[in-house]
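Take a look at my tokenised protein here and describe the backbone shape.
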Amino acid sequence: MQTSNAAAALQELLGRKCGEMSTLGNYMFQSFNFRSKEKLKPFHSLVASITAEELGHVELVSEGVAMLNNGPDKKDGDLGDGGGISDAPWKA
């Protein structure tokens, strides 16, 4: 799979109807509008924790899209092309 096709697939995972952004919005809305937070604290904490987890998913998928489109940053911290990443998992 070409990197642009992989990036498109990840973008779909991020933004489609049941994607990470949609899921984040749903849990965030539930967390903000949770009634009786003190009485039902364990359940509110669960919903809030899932919201934080979904935010992490959005960050990871977004970083994956950026890496597939631009290549990873260079080892010395400079931004830039960083080269092709097709062999990156197998390089030492």
Q: What stands out?
A: The two ends are 22 Å apart (CA to CA). Residues 3-70 form one domain. DSSP finds three helices and no strands in the chain.
